[in-house]
Amino acid sequence: MKIKRKLNHNRIIFLSIFLICLALILTGASLGEKFFNDQNVYYQEQRNSLETDLRPRELALNYQGDLVDLFNQYNAGKLTPQQLSDKVMALRVPADYKELHLKVVRAVSALVKDKTAEETKIDLQELKNGYWWLAGSLANLIANIY
After folding, report:
1. What is the domain count for the chain?
2. Measured between alpha carbons, how far is 46 from 93 in angstroms, rounded to an integer?
3. Helix-helix angle 117-130:135-143, to 10 degrees
4. Comparing C-alpha atoms, which of 110, 131, 133, 128 is closest to residue 143?
5. What count of other Cβ atoms lies within 10 Å of the Cβ of residue 60?
6. Residue 144 DSSP label
7. Which of 6, 37, 40, 91 is deepest in the core (most CB within 10 A)?
């Protein structure tokens, strides 16, 4: 009888220790997961803030390059006025260039609608004078209008 009681007592102690260890392991795992998730959120926020700081500048540079490229393609005869208009309308426009983009759309639609050469030249000349990086492409375009 004493042996059975001792065995039952040893089983109870073993189960108690096992359950305590299991609870500690699960608690440690959940705390570790929370810690790593918090760090991932922190690093994600840091990366997002860096991306948002760089994104407008990168978008502006891409817009400048794409717009100059479109005018150069048009000057080379690779695009029709309608194709130029469609591609200009499809560009992603940074906030700093929204006003410019509206002026470009207006000037390009004048090319599509065959408005008078003087109106179109005046619109393009304003753009050429206001944005140095467009000057070369627009000078060729202005020279070749009608």
Report:
1. 1
2. 25
3. 160
4. 128
5. 15
6. T
7. 91
Residue with tokens 């140095």: 132
The predicted structure's pLDDT at residue 66: 93
Domain that includes residue 29, residue range? 2-143
Q: Which of 120, 118, 96 is nearest to 108 (CA)?
A: 120
137 is written with which tokens?
């492409």
Give the 3-state secondary structure of residue 136.
helix
Instruction: Give 81's contacts (C-beta < 8 A, 6+ positions apart).
Output: 74, 108, 111, 112
- Number of CB atoms found within 10 A of residue 50's CB: 10
Span 73-85, mean pLDDT? Answer: 89
Identify the burial level of 12 via C-beta atoms within 10 angstroms of its C-beta, where 0-12 means exposed, 13-18 middle and 19 or more buried: exposed
Give φ, ψ of 142 to 5 degrees: -65, -40
Radius of gyration of the chain (CA): 34
**How many beta carbons lie within 10 A of that of residue 84, not counting itself?**
22
